[in-house]
Design goal:
The chain has 639 residues and is an alpha/beta fold. It has four domains: 224 residues, P-loop containing nucleotide triphosphate hydrolases (Rossmann fold), CATH 3.40.50.300; 80 residues, Translation factors (Elongation Factor Tu (Ef-tu), domain 3); 105 residues, Beta Barrel (Elongation Factor Tu (Ef-tu), domain 3); 180 residues, Rossmann fold (3-Layer(aba) Sandwich). The strands form four sheets. Strands 7-13-10-11-12-9-8 form a seven-stranded antiparallel β-sheet, with no helix packed on it. The chain has a six-stranded mixed β-sheet with strand order 2-3-1-4-5-6, with helices on both faces. Helix 7 links the parallel strand 4 and strand 5. The longest helix has 20 residues. The protein starts with 6 loop residues before the first helix and ends in a 6-residue tail after the last helix.
Length: 639
């Protein structure tokens, strides 16, 4: 509903043009049950003359039979439209209302206060720029106040107006207002809020909602409507980093091929260089096509169709990005998740993950911690129940192209969907790559350069550095071969360091277990050490089970393709069992050891190895000789 204006009668086109130029504010009201959220919205609409006469007449009639405001019109009935809502006097579903004033357009989301409907609150908050947190002046800051404030902050809403309502029931006490203000500020210290605005009011009577009223003379701040009309919510919008998730490829005729979607962030102009991901192929923007004609520039939130100067392969689910500002890429992400279904979430169960760049099969691999909503403390958890909020790691079969949610609410968000019922079970906000393989270092850090060149080290040590990764099942002979290889290289005057998987776990990886994620992190740490040693001209011999072929390929990338050599110790599992003096295979068979490669977890056979050794056939000396020959043939040994 729009505000009244003389232009409507005199010049409708001028009115529409003026209306179109207004900016739009999306905000939600939230708080505990019966704090007055629906009444506040009704008061905003009523006192701004945004209710039609027939609506008002119907509201007055309903107030006599279903209202709870005594002799007054129950404005809460304006948004509580469901029969169950009116019978119980509570909000169950999210109700949306649109209105405008002379200064701004608004979309309001009236969200439920009951804890069991927290998922509905998350839905309403996901697209909002500002949150109104209502507090009953009689009760002060309570659990739902904290829950909704935390969720609003989690969903990237930095602008918060704390409406301390029902001041009429505490005799308009300034002392009570100040007390609640201090309570809220103390709770909100860890949250990333932009100077919360505190507003005393009575939504029922109308004081300080649209008009000042006569009862709050001690308050010199704005009314709620004044704050809504003037608050700046555009400051955080990213206009630098262009992101266009492609939702459709349009080809109405042979001469047109466009890529349609809604701009998640940044601006784009004809002539801009863009990169299509995940392919990495670049091109130049030719046209920005819309229903209203071509545009010279388009920004966040605009639905457009781009055409490119080159015929490159772009498909639905791809993302067009600005050159030099590519997003993060990973199969594993860390995310804050709000669990939204009665069925508990346990790690290992498969879901569908819907993200800006498409649908993936996903598994929650690790629950890092759950958040205690009252204290904001981190708690360990084996599962998540309805409305739990937790930081966890999600693994997908399809590489995600994403930004951190704090940087981009569109490309940093996802939902988890039950594979059988298609119900949304979780809402996620990505905090970063779940694996440290993809985690970028702090911008303030710079890699230091040595004054000793690689060539000088090669001459001194008589070798070109390399890392030999011996991989295979437990008891395949990796460590035995690695130990003998280290001895032979030393006897030949070479400089080598052996990184044994067990030794690493006794030291820098003592905090890791044996899950797939922990094994991956263990090998990443070994790769970082190997790279540092190789940079010092030292040969590295690494012996790890490393059952995941993808992780081994990441090891090779991190160390460097020209330096990394993979040796697959391909000893049959029957022989490995016979050699196992620690009884590990028996314990795995009995179910005492989980995630044991070859028994209770898979081992990906090496497909890109540089050398294959069957230690059941070759002796230790023959295996070492084969590796030394490989190093010599590759130019890594001199003399």
């Amino acid at each position: 509903m729009s505000h009244q204006s003389e232009l409507i009668a005199t010049d409708i086109e001028a009115y529409l043009a003026e209306h179109e130029r207004k900016d739009l504010l999306r905000f939600l009201t939230c708080g505990s049950v019966d704090d007055g959220k629906s009444t506040l919205i009704g008061r905003l609409l009523h006192d701004s003359h945004m209710i039609y006469e027939d609506q008002l007449a119907s509201l007055e009639a309903d107030s006599t039979t279903q209202g709870s405001a005594g002799d007054q019109v129950d404005l809460a009935l304006l948004t509580d439209g469901l029969k169950a809502e009116r019978e119980q006097g509570i909000t169950i579903d999210v109700a949306y209302r649109y209105f405008s004033t002379a200064k701004r357009k608004f979309i309001i989301a009236d969200t439920p206060g009951h804890e069991q409907y927290t998922r509905n609150m998350v839905t309403g908050a996901s697209t909002c720029q500002l949150a109104i947190i209502l507090i009953d002046a009689r009760h002060g800051v309570i659990t739902q106040t904290k829950r909704h404030s935390y969720i609003a902050n989690l969903l990237g809403i930095r602008n918060v107006a704390v409406a301390i309502n029902k001041m009429d029931l505490v005799d308009w006490s300034q002392e009570r207002f100040d007390e609640i203000r201090e309570q809220y500020l103390e709770f909100a210290k860890p949250l990333d809020l932009i100077d919360p605005v505190f507003l005393p009011m009575s939504a029922l009577l109308g004081d300080n909602v649209v008009e000042k009223g006569d009862n709050l003379a001690w308050f010199d701040g704005p009314t709620m409507m004044e704050h809504l009309e003037t608050v700046d919510v555009e400051a955080g919008i990213d206009i630098e980093t262009f992101r266009l998730p492609v939702q459709m490829v349009t080809r109405p005729d042979l001469d047109f091929r466009g890529f349609a979607g809604t701009i998640a962030s940044g601006v784009v102009r004809p002539g801009d260089k863009v990169i299509n991901l995940p392919s990495g192929v670049s091109s130049t923007v030719d046209r920005i096509v819309t229903m209203d004609g071509d545009l010279p520039i388009a920004g966040p939130g605009r639905a457009i169709t781009l055409t490119l100067t080159d015929e490159i392969d772009v498909s639905r689910g791809d993302v067009l990005v600005s050159e030099g500002q590519e997003p993060l890429r990973a199969h594993d992400v860390d995310a804050m998740v709000v669990w939204m279904t009665d069925e508990a979430m346990t790690p290992g169960r498969q879901y569908l993950l819907q993200h800006a760049n498409g649908l993936s099969n996903a598994t929650v691999t690790t629950i890092h911690h759950r958040v205690d909503i009252n204290t904001l403390e981190q708690q360990s958890a084996d599962e998540l129940a309805l409305n739990d909020i937790a930081w966890l790691q999600v693994s997908t079969d399809r590489e995600l192209l994403f930004d951190r949610y704090a940087d981009n609410r569109q490309t940093g968000a996802f939902i988890l969907v039950d594979r059988l019922t298609n119900a949304t079970v979780g809402a996620g906000m990505i905090t970063g790559a779940g694996s440290s393989w993809d985690r970028a270092p702090e911008d303030s850090l710079q890699r230091q350069v040595s004054m000793v060149s690689a060539a000088e080290r090669a001459v001194r040590f008589g070798q070109q550095p390399a890392t030999v990764l011996l991989t295979g099942l437990t008891a395949a002979g990796k460590s035995t071969i690695a130990t003998a290889l280290e001895r032979q290289l030393f006897d030949r005057g070479k400089v080598a360091v052996r990184l044994d998987g067990e030794n690493i776990r006794l030291g820098i990886s003592r905090d890791l277990g044996f899950t797939a994620a922990d094994r991956s992190e263990n090998l990443r740490r070994a790769a970082e050490i190997a790279r540092l040693l190789n940079n010092q001209g030292i040969t590295v011999i690494a012996a790890f089970v490393s059952p995941d072929a993808t992780v081994r390929s990441r090891f090779k990338e991190l160390v460097g393709d020209e330096r990394s050599l993979e040796v697959f110790v391909d000893t049959p599992i029957e022989v490995c069992r016979e050699r196992d003096t620690s009884g590990l295979y028996e314990r795995a068979d009995a179910g005492e050891i989980a995630d044991f490669p070859g028994v209770s977890a898979p081992y990906d056979d090496a497909e890109t190895f540089d050398l294959r050794l069957d230690a059941s056939v070759l002796s230790i000396e023959e295996s070492v000789a084969a590796i030394v020959k490989m190093l010599g043939d590759g130019g890594h040994l001199r003399g």
